[in-house]
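Box 3.1 A note on notation
Throughout this textbook, protein chains are presented in two layers. The first layer is the amino acid sequence; the second is a token string describing backbone geometry. Keep the layers aligned when reading.
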Amino acid sequence: MLAAQGFARPRPTGAVTVRHGAALLDRVAAIQLDSVNVVARAHELTLFARLGDHPRDLSARLIRHGRAFEFWGHEASLIDVRLQPALRWRMEEAKRGTMWSGLVAVARDHPGYVRRVREAVRDRGPISARHLEDRGVKPDHMWGWDRGKQALEYLFWTGEITAWRTPNFERVYDLTDRALPRAIVDAPTPTDDDARKELLVRAARSFGVATAADLADAFRQRRPVARPLVAELVEEGALEEVRVEAWRSPAYRVPGTPVPRRLDACALLTPFDSLMWERDRVERIFGFRYRIEIYVPEPRRTHGYYVLPFLLGDRLVARVDAKADRRRSLLLLPGAWAEPGVAVEPVARALAAEAGRLARFLGLDGVEVGRRGDLAASLRRAVRRA
């Protein structure tokens, strides 16, 4: 699983380029995007976990160079551009109304307005929502999206326009036919079943070994639809069924999937990292129970608001509550907890070193450790020594 997720190779020692990012995207297929910026944006942390220090605009460069595009994959995701034809069925489903109700309503109730927004993108694009002249009044739902933003998101979901992010995470929109590589735009559209099967195989490549439910979840396919397609892929030889000890369900992998003899990963993971997508799978493989607590009231949180699992070797050995204090130029770690049975001092030393690397990547001057958690004291000592 870890090798398939890009952790088998050491981080680049020189400058990280678009080529490195494209190779990683070829391996993991999709990198989730999220607006939470407690430490850094989710995609930056996912890239840092595997590539180390990299240009903060690497995701935008991947899109500009025609190697990636943004769309709804697992959630909002940076996706290998070669998968765009395999996701057109989702765009067609969106046109039939399978999306957020607010977007369905704007297309149903204001078709002329949506058409004018598309014309604005065609004539003036690339543009963001703030460039629209008639945006309507902000409602008290849909994250406060006004009618202009809703129309853009409808067109984005249906594939008529595409988007990328500015440094402040704002979407900029342009016509799909104009923004994506011509070879992708002109590629034939596969049948729905063939497209879904391609996504299942790419999920298997990126997961290493997984159940049918895991494979379906990667690109948010419905399990009843995905299961017979997995069976067909086994019959065709694109997947092979295997047994994993202690798993109740059959597992699947791409034939010939390599298994490294050892692996020496060291990475702090965002909760939105593709390694962490399916929490039950993480627990099934690593014995690591993780639940994000962003939406849990503070008095009821067990570990903290934005908790990063720590990968060391081939195990998830600890977790840290983390926050970038940009005013004080510090990476704050208010709490740190070791998993049962791990050797605390070696984990603390490795975690201190990785926290230092992350702080430098973020342009922060240091690391400050709080007092919560059974790993905190050892981590404070290790940070002082480092």
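The mean pLDDT is 95. The longest strand covers residues 315-325.
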